[in-house]
Amino acid sequence: MSAIDPDYVGALTLMIMPGTTLADDLSTGKFELLDNYGLLMELREMIASTILSKGLFFSNHASNYLPVKIRYPEGKAQALQLIDMALDGKVSLRPEWMRAL
Protein backbone atom coordinates (compact mmCIF):
# COMPACT_ATOMS: atom_id res chain seq x y z
CA MET A 1 0.00 0.00 0.00
CA SER A 2 2.77 2.39 0.88
CA ALA A 3 4.37 2.03 -2.55
CA ILE A 4 1.25 3.21 -4.39
CA ASP A 5 0.26 5.80 -1.69
CA PRO A 6 -3.51 5.58 -2.32
CA ASP A 7 -6.00 8.22 -1.21
CA TYR A 8 -8.18 5.55 0.41
CA VAL A 9 -7.69 2.08 1.89
CA GLY A 10 -10.54 -0.02 3.25
CA ALA A 11 -9.96 -3.13 5.36
CA LEU A 12 -12.72 -5.69 5.93
CA THR A 13 -12.77 -8.81 8.07
CA LEU A 14 -13.33 -12.10 6.29
CA MET A 15 -16.73 -13.64 6.91
CA ILE A 16 -17.23 -17.22 5.72
CA MET A 17 -20.46 -17.88 3.86
CA PRO A 18 -22.10 -21.29 4.43
CA GLY A 19 -22.10 -23.64 1.45
CA THR A 20 -18.87 -22.30 -0.02
CA THR A 21 -15.64 -24.17 -0.63
CA LEU A 22 -13.97 -22.02 2.02
CA ALA A 23 -16.68 -22.99 4.53
CA ASP A 24 -15.97 -26.63 3.74
CA ASP A 25 -12.24 -26.04 4.20
CA LEU A 26 -12.95 -24.37 7.55
CA SER A 27 -15.06 -27.28 8.77
CA THR A 28 -12.37 -29.83 7.83
CA GLY A 29 -9.53 -27.81 9.34
CA LYS A 30 -7.91 -27.14 5.97
CA PHE A 31 -8.48 -23.41 6.56
CA GLU A 32 -8.27 -21.61 9.91
CA LEU A 33 -9.65 -18.22 10.85
CA LEU A 34 -7.72 -15.88 13.07
CA ASP A 35 -9.20 -15.27 16.50
CA ASN A 36 -10.03 -11.70 17.62
CA TYR A 37 -6.52 -11.22 19.03
CA GLY A 38 -4.98 -12.33 15.74
CA LEU A 39 -7.27 -10.05 13.75
CA LEU A 40 -6.33 -7.07 15.92
CA MET A 41 -2.64 -7.89 15.60
CA GLU A 42 -3.02 -8.15 11.83
CA LEU A 43 -4.79 -4.77 11.70
CA ARG A 44 -2.15 -3.24 13.95
CA GLU A 45 0.69 -4.50 11.76
CA MET A 46 -1.10 -3.28 8.63
CA ILE A 47 -1.50 0.23 10.07
CA ALA A 48 1.96 0.37 11.66
CA SER A 49 3.77 -0.64 8.49
CA THR A 50 1.74 1.51 6.09
CA ILE A 51 3.03 4.95 5.16
CA LEU A 52 0.61 7.22 3.34
CA SER A 53 1.25 10.88 2.57
CA LYS A 54 -2.37 11.98 3.01
CA GLY A 55 -4.63 8.98 2.60
CA LEU A 56 -7.54 7.61 4.57
CA PHE A 57 -7.48 4.14 6.12
CA PHE A 58 -10.85 2.81 7.24
CA SER A 59 -11.71 -0.48 8.88
CA ASN A 60 -15.18 0.58 9.94
CA HIS A 61 -17.18 -1.90 7.87
CA ALA A 62 -19.81 -3.97 9.72
CA SER A 63 -17.50 -7.00 9.41
CA ASN A 64 -14.78 -5.37 11.50
CA TYR A 65 -14.59 -6.00 15.24
CA LEU A 66 -12.90 -2.65 15.94
CA PRO A 67 -13.99 0.32 13.83
CA VAL A 68 -10.97 2.46 12.93
CA LYS A 69 -10.80 5.60 10.81
CA ILE A 70 -7.42 7.19 10.16
CA ARG A 71 -6.22 10.15 8.18
CA TYR A 72 -2.54 9.53 7.52
CA PRO A 73 -0.06 10.54 8.69
CA GLU A 74 -1.44 12.40 11.72
CA GLY A 75 -3.94 9.73 12.86
CA LYS A 76 -1.61 6.74 12.78
CA ALA A 77 -0.34 6.94 16.38
CA GLN A 78 -3.85 7.38 17.81
CA ALA A 79 -5.15 4.39 15.82
CA LEU A 80 -2.30 2.20 17.09
CA GLN A 81 -3.08 3.33 20.63
CA LEU A 82 -6.77 2.39 20.16
CA ILE A 83 -5.79 -1.07 18.89
CA ASP A 84 -3.39 -1.55 21.79
CA MET A 85 -6.18 -0.64 24.22
CA ALA A 86 -8.46 -3.20 22.53
CA LEU A 87 -5.71 -5.83 22.76
CA ASP A 88 -5.47 -5.06 26.50
CA GLY A 89 -9.25 -5.43 26.89
CA LYS A 90 -9.76 -1.71 27.64
CA VAL A 91 -11.86 -1.11 24.50
CA SER A 92 -14.81 -3.30 23.63
CA LEU A 93 -15.03 -5.02 20.29
CA ARG A 94 -18.14 -5.05 18.13
CA PRO A 95 -20.30 -7.99 19.29
CA GLU A 96 -20.81 -10.86 16.86
CA TRP A 97 -24.54 -10.14 16.44
CA MET A 98 -23.72 -6.65 15.14
CA ARG A 99 -21.45 -8.14 12.46
CA ALA A 100 -24.24 -10.09 10.79
CA LEU A 101 -24.51 -9.06 7.18
Provide the fold topology.
Layout: E1 8-10, H1 21-28, H2 36-49, E2 56-58, E3 69-71, H3 76-87
Parallel strand pairs: 1-2
Antiparallel strand pairs: 2-3
Shape: globular
What is the number of helices? 3
Strand order of the largest sheet: 1-2-3
Oligomer: single chain
User: Which range does the strand content fall in?
Assistant: 5-15%
Give the total of beta strands: 3
Residue stretches low in confidence (pLDDT < 50, at least 5 long) are none
Largest sheet: 3 strands, mixed
Gyration radius, in Å: 15 Å
Total domains, how many? 1
Instruction: Summarize model confidence as the mean pLDDT.
Output: 93
Distance between the termini: 27 Å
Order of helices and strands: EHHEEH
- Label the structural class: alpha+beta
Helix content: 25-40%
Question: Could you characterize the architecture of this molecule?
Answer:
There is one protein chain. The protein is globular, with a radius of gyration of 15 Å. It is of the alpha+beta class. α2 packs antiparallel against α3. The chain has helices at residues 21-28, 36-49, 76-87, and strands at residues 8-10, 56-58, 69-71. The mean pLDDT is 93. Strands 1-2-3 form a 3-stranded mixed β-sheet, covered by helices on one side. The chain has one domain (8-94).
